[in-house]
C-alpha cells in the first residue's frame, strides 16, 4: 500500500523484487481461485474468517508505514487531493455505468459498484515503480484513500448501489473501521513504538500478505462456485472494462492537471487498482457470496493488467524521468519498492 525501501546499492534488486511480486502474486491468487472452484464444499465454512483475514492484511500494511509517508502527504496536498478525488469519483462512477450498461443482475451490479467504491489497491505502489512513475505520490494517495475509506466507501455505495440491493451504510462504516482503519492504525503505532523489532520482520510481510489475500479469494470463490459457471464471462467483461477505463482515466486526469508523466502514471494505478480484498469482505458480509465475485476476479485481473501496463510504460521514457530509477524512485529513496512494504 505504501512506500517500499531496500538497500540503496542495488537498483536491479529492486526491479527483481517488484517484478516477482506482480508475477507470483497473481499466479498464487489464480491457484487459490481454481482450488475454491474445484472443491468448494471444503472451504464454504471458512466464510466467517474473511473479516479477520482482511484485518491481518491491513495490519501488515500499518506495520510498513513510517512518519515519512505521512509527511509526504503534507508536502504535496494538491497532487494527493487530486488523486483522492479522481479515485473516489472515477471508479465508483465507472462501476455504476458498467453495471447499468451491461444490465448486470442485482447481486453482481452491487459487487461491481462496491469494488469501485473501495480504496486504492495494495500493489499500486509496486506497479508504479515498475512503470517508472512517481512512487511517492502513489504512496500518499494509497495511504490517504485507505484512511478515509470508512467515511467515503459506505455513502458512495449507498448512493450508487441502493437501487440494486439494500445497503446498510452504518453497518458498513462499522465494518470498515474494524477491518481496515483500526488494524492499519494499530500496525502504524506498533511500528512507531517498536520500529527496530518490526524491521526484522519486514521481509516476511509481503509473503504473509500475499498468502492471506489468496486465502480470501479461495473463500470467496468457493462460496459462489455455483454461480461462476453461469456468470464468469459477464463478470470478467465488467472487471476488464472497469479496470481498463480506470487506468486510462486516471492517467488522463493527471495529464489534464499537468502533473507530468511520472505523476500521471502514478495516478493511473491509484485510480485503476482497487482494494478488492476489502470489497470481497464487505460484499460477503452485507450482500451475498455472488456479490463478491467481481472483487475476486478483480483481485486477479488488476495485478495482471497493472504489470502489463507498467511494462509498456517503462519502455516509454519521459522528459522528467529516464528509464533508470531517478532520485525519487531509486531504491533507498522514499517510495522505492522492497520488503519494507508488502506488495500484494
TrEMBL record:
It is found in: Membrane. Residues 327-344 have a biased composition (Low complexity). Residues 319-344 are annotated as: Disordered. It comes from the Bacteria. Keywords: Membrane, Transmembrane, Transmembrane helix. It is a multi-pass membrane protein. InterPro entries: BilAc:Na_symport/Acr3 (IPR002657), Bilac:Na_transpt (IPR004710), Na+/solute_symporter_sf (IPR038770). The chain crosses the membrane at residues 20-39, 45-66, 78-102, 108-128, 135-156, 176-194, 201-225, 231-254, 266-285, 291-314. This is Bile acid:sodium symporter family protein.
Amino acid at each position: 500500500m505504501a512506500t517500499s525501501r531496500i538497500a540503496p546499492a542495488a537498483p536491479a534488486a529492486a526491479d527483481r523484487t517488484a517484478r516477482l511480486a506482480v508475477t507470483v502474486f497473481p499466479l498464487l491468487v489464480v491457484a487459490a481461485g481454481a482450488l475454491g472452484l474445484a472443491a468448494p464444499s471444503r472451504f464454504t465454512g471458512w466464510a466467517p474468517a474473511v473479516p479477520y483475514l482482511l484485518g491481518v492484511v491491513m495490519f501488515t500494511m500499518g506495520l510498513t508505514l513510517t512518519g515519512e509517508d505521512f509527511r509526504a502527504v503534507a508536502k504535496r496536498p494538491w497532487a494527493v487531493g487530486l488523486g483522492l478525488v479522481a479515485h473516489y469519483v472515477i471508479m465508483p462512477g465507472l462501476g455504476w455505468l458498467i453495471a447499468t450498461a451491461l444490465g448486470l443482475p442485482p447481486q453482481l451490479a452491487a459487487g461491481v459498484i462496491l469494488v469501485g467504491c473501495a480504496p486504492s489497491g495494495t500493489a499500486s505502489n509496486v506497479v508504479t515503480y515498475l512503470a517508472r512513475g512517481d512512487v511517492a505520490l502513489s504512496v500518499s494517495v494509497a495511504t490517504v484513500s485507505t484512511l478515509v475509506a470508512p467515511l467515503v466507501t459506505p455513502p458512495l455505495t449507498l448512493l450508487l448501489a441502493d437501487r440494486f440491493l439494500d445497503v446498510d451504510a452504518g453497518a458498513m462504516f462499522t465494518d470498515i473501521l474494524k477491518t481496515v482503519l483500526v488494524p492499519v492504525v494499530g500496525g502504524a503505532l506498533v511500528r512507531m513504538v517498536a520500529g527496530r523489532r518490526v524491521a526484522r520482520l519486514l521481509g516476511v510481510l509481503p509473503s504473509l500478505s500475499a498468502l492471506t489475500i489468496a486465502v480470501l479469494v479461495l473463500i470467496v470463490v468457493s462460496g459462489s462456485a455455483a454461480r461462476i459457471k453461469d456468470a464468469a464471462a459477464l463478470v470478467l467483461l465488467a472487471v476488464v472494462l472497469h479496470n481498463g477505463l480506470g487506468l486510462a482515466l486516471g492517467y488522463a486526469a493527471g495529464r489534464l492537471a499537468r502533473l507530468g508523466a511520472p505523476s500521471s502514471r502514478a495516478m493511473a494505478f491509484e485510480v485503476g487498482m482497487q482494494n478488492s480484498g476489502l470489497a470481497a469482505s464487505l460484499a460477503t458480509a452485507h450482500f451475498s457470496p455472488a456479490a463478491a465475485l467481481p472483487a475476486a476476479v478483480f483481485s486477479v485481473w488488476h495485478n495482471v493488467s497493472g504489470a502489463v501496463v507498467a511494462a509498456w510504460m517503462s519502455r516509454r521514457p519521459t522528459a522528467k524521468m529516464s528509464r533508470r530509477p531517478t532520485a525519487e524512485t531509486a531504491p533507498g529513496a522514499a517510495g522505492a519498492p522492497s520488503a519494507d512494504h508488502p506488495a500484494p
